[in-house]
Inverse folding.
């Protein structure tokens, strides 16, 4: 008797946190319904007058070339029918002056809308959306935040042309059963798709999410795309390894210093030396003083002296 039980199909999905994968999934001009649903739900535009009905991707995805790989990976830039501009980015590490880079990207996108300075009235809103694989706002428990320019006393929102949205993936701990809406589903996809081998029933809808899984299926990727994806993965691992090595090296130096003195005061000095050694190594790796201060608890002026 023929077995009518349908076998569960398994897949190998790319990790959307990889820059190459992120751009292929969300930056494909032929599948822009994915980006529209993604933005409408992450920015909470769905069902409101702000809902995006159509969008043009200004730098559509192209197969990356391995030579000069880092230069071929760009943020996704798009504009909707109201001429509102969007910058969408996947950021794996908190690099030096990351916050200033975001401000630069948004301001550059803003002023580049004009050919002549007197055309100020033609400037349109720029919305930044950053998916971060690290915590940026350590004292804020929310995984999704929206940042506006507000009056300090009245909270009046007068300067509306700049908007910054961030999703901090480490803070997102919901299970499949705990997903409340489509926004949660998209965040869960970005964070976890690379570890999946099938599409859970909770993520079968909306259809654009199913299409995102199709785009993330390695079986649909060319050899050139997979090579670029692997190369970016190696780059990410190398960066993570450099940071971890810096931390371990600094820790060991501090322990050795403390053992040499061997006194209670020496233990305090050893801990301080450990932190200073870690800070020096982090500075060499290009990490920002603000990040180093947060990780080591050393004051900013002391870190400046170390540099």
């Amino acid at each position: 008797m023929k077995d009518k039980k349908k076998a569960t199909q398994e897949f190998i999905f790319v990790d959307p946190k990889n820059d190459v994968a992120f751009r292929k999934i969300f930056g494909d001009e032929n599948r822009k319904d994915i980006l529209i649903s993604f933005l409408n739900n992450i920015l909470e535009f769905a069902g409101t007058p702000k809902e995006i009905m159509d969008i043009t991707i200004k730098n559509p995805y192209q197969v990356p070339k391995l030579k000069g790989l880092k230069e071929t990976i760009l943020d996704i830039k798009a504009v909707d029918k109201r001429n509102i501009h969007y910058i969408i980015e996947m950021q794996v590490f908190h690099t030096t002056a990351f916050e200033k880079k975001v401000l630069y990207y948004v301001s550059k996108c803003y002023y580049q809308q004009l050919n002549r300075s007197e055309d100020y009235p033609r400037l349109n809103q720029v919305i930044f959306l950053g998916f971060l694989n690290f915590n940026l706002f350590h004292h804020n428990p929310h995984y999704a935040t929206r940042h506006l320019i507000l009056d300090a006393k009245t909270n009046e929102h007068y300067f509306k042309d700049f908007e910054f949205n961030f999703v901090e993936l480490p803070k997102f701990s919901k299970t499949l059963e705990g997903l409340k809406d489509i926004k949660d589903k998209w965040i869960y996809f970005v964070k976890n798709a690379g570890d999946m081998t099938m599409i859970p029933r909770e993520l079968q809808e909306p259809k654009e999410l199913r299409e995102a899984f199709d785009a993330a299926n390695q079986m649909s990727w060319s050899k050139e795309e997979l090579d670029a994806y692997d190369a970016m993965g190696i780059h990410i691992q190398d960066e993570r390894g450099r940071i971890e090595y810096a931390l371990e090296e600094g820790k060991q130096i501090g322990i050795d210093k403390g053992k040499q003195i061997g006194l209670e005061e020496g233990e305090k000095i050893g801990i301080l030396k450990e932190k200073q050694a870690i800070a020096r190594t982090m500075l060499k790796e290009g990490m920002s003083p603000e990040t180093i201060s947060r990780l080591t608890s050393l004051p900013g002026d002391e870190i400046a002296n170390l540099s």
Q: What stands out?
A: Strands lie at 55-57, 76-80, 85-91, 126-132, 144-147, 162-168. The first strand starts at residue 55 and ends at 57.
